[in-house]
């Protein structure tokens, strides 16, 4: 991780700790290179999870470090997810790191698991929101005092003005919800939305520092639903066919190696994509009979 507040508390006793690369764009280059080299020496491979809302210097420094080390054992993972959703995804990878998965399969799992998280926020203004399409009417309503908007950024953009009949389409399988409150008094997420989505449990955490930049306002409540059980995550990852990267020889899932970025040659059949998320987890949902419960605060 590139910031400490993105390293969520462990989900269970098997969750591996996160290594935080502090202030990559502020510290001397030789120090940051030495830190990354130490992690490589300890673990062999490194998966760096980085938000797209980080300062440009952080992303640039990561590519510089990888180039200087001339290492194909560093995977830079920067999906288009809000900060809280990315923090949840990073914790899922930390859970899977305790299993018998090869580095390539573990790193590839990040792209697979993005399909199973729903990320959104309640915003007090959408005037500076550029991650989700916003119409002129919504922009105009942002200037009305007390107006709030419910927004889904992933997997499909949605935007509604919060009112008695406001709804957002959510996951079709059993999930838990994580909520991070910023400068907003809204309880709509923990009450109305969580019940509408039939979440199995709810937890709270501090708002990531990068969330205000990502959403364009500090008047927000960010939320994310996710699959918490390691057994379910492991089954999802191992059910996808693995292949060997023709360039670096590492085991991967999907159509691109996350370490060397190579794609299969044109004459090879690419690995099949994952089964759509609405199907497999729904079958697994019957395993969980836990009722909705509100646990606050926790990780």
Molecular structure report:
The protein has 299 residues and is an alpha+beta fold. It has a domain of 111 residues: 2-Layer Sandwich (Hypothetical Protein Tm841, Chain: A,domain 3). It is 29% helix and 16% strand. The chain has 9 helices and 10 strands. The protein has a 6-stranded mixed beta sheet, with helices on both faces. Strands 1-2 form a two-stranded parallel ribbon. A hairpin with a 6-residue loop joins strand 9 and strand 10. Helix 1 packs across helix 2 and helix 3 runs antiparallel to helix 4. The radius of gyration is 20 Å and the shape is globular.
| Rg over alpha carbons | 20 Å
Kindly identify the CATH topology of the domain at 118-228.
Answer: Hypothetical Protein Tm841, Chain: A,domain 3
Q: What characteristic shape results from the CA principal axes?
A: globular
Model regions low in confidence, pLDDT < 50 over at least 5 residues: 278-283, 285-299
- The H-and-E topology, N to C, reads as HEHEHHEHEEEHEHEHEEH
* Count of DSSP H/I helices: 9
Helix share, percent: 25-40%
CATH architectural category of the domain at 118-228: 2-Layer Sandwich
Q: What structural category arises from helix and sheet content? A: alpha+beta
CATH class designation of the domain at 118-228: Alpha Beta
Quaternary status: single chain
Biased composition (Basic and acidic residues): 282-299
Region (Disordered): 266-299
């Amino acid at each position: 991780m590139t910031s400490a507040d993105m390293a969520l508390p462990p989900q269970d006793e098997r969750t591996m700790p996160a290594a935080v690369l502090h202030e990559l764009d502020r510290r001397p280059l030789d120090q940051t290179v030495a830190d990354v080299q130490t992690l490589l020496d300890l673990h062999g491979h490194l998966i760096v999870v980085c938000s797209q809302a980080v300062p440009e210097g952080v992303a640039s420094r990561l590519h510089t470090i990888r180039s200087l080390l001339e290492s194909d054992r560093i995977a830079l993972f920067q999906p288009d997810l809000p900060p809280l959703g990315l923090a949840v995804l990073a914790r899922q990878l930390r859970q899977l790191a305790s299993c018998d998965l090869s580095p390539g399969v573990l790193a590839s799992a990040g792209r697979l698991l993005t399909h199973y998280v729903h990320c959104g926020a309640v915003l007090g203004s959408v005037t500076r929101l550029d991650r989700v399409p916003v119409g002129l009417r919504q922009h105009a309503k942002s200037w009305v005092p007390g107006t709030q908007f419910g927004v889904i950024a992933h997997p499909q953009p949605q935007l509604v003005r919060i009112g008695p009949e406001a709804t957002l389409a959510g996951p079709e399988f059993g999930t838990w919800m994580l909520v991070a409150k910023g400068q907003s008094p809204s309880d709509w997420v923990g009450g109305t939305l969580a019940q509408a989505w039939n979440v199995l449990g709810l937890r709270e955490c501090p708002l990531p520092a990068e969330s205000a930049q990502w959403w364009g306002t500090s008047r927000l409540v960010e939320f994310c639903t996710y699959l918490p059980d390691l057994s379910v995550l492991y089954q999802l990852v191992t059910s996808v066919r693995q292949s060997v990267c023709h360039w670096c020889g590492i085991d991967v899932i999907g159509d691109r190696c996350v370490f060397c970025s190579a794609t299969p040659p044109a004459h090879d059949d690419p690995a099949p994509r994952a089964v759509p998320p609405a199907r497999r987890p729904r079958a697994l949902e019957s395993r969980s009979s836990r009722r909705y419960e509100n646990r606050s605060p926790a990780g």
